[in-house]
Amino acid sequence: MTETQAPAEEVTTARRTLLEARDLHVEFTSRGRRARAVDGVNLAVGEGEIVALVGESGCGKTTLARTLLGLEKPTSGTVRYGGEPLKYTSRALKEYRRQVQLVLQDPMGSLNPRHTVYEAVAEGPRIHGLPDEADVVNTALGRAGLRPPERFLLRYPHELSGGQRQRVVIAGALALDPKVLIADEPVASLDASVRGEILALLLRLRDELGLSALVVTHDLGLAWNIADRVAVMYLGRVVESGPVEQVLTAPRHPYTQALLSVLPESPERVVLTGEPPDPTRIPGGCRFHARCQVLASGKAAEAGVDGRCRNEPLNILPAATGAQAACYYAEATG
Fold it and tell me: Is ATP-binding one of the keywords (predicted)?
């Protein structure tokens, strides 16, 4: 196998694809060194679908999310919405961000402490010149579970609980009636007792409004509870993807197996050595091979693929809906 990219496959699914990355690359240059933060990603989010993007810190998932939002421009490849390539003019991006909204992990950081709840939720509708502002704000707060809305309109962020603040952030996104939410670690800063409420809210929004979501997280337990499909990212690439139940009950990639092993119900803990490699120095062969427990244990040698793991780059995974893994050992052992 070589690292050359075959034409991106069309996603065959009953759901219409709304948001898509096609052979996406995002590079940053600092002090003459080129960092491949996103290094060839194909990913699709269907209508009414929740996709979890999972990986360690530094794997490129936040850069990918920012690129899907139009906040970063890809070095190569395309972001497509509704089948059309994203345009980067101010007017096109403004319209696009009515359809695709961001929900950040830190509500205190994303809410202005001097603005009331009403002002926070009304900001987007004002920017976009939407009519009936008060009705839009009340409806958005109600959908986000802040009922009755009148109780919250004049409160400030410091007067709310963490869960209420996150609901205000979600209401601010809902006020523009988007089709897709991109949620970056949406419950990471919340108490365990509140996390389930916010996840249940996202599921309810999907069921009642047909909303799609890409949920960026390091937590496979969260992915299990909320996602229809999961994409596992390592060092700028998706290394395994598929229906969440299939991937998380029978993971094929050693990296996914290691991430799952930290969950309480896991029978065996896999301790990964070292940190993810520097994206300015991506290793040859499988990019995970230096930390791979299967290669270290000799199992890859028994399957006759250890040389390929160390030296032969893997193909980039397509945006397919079925389970798939970029791993020579998984291919060899079926």
Answer: yes
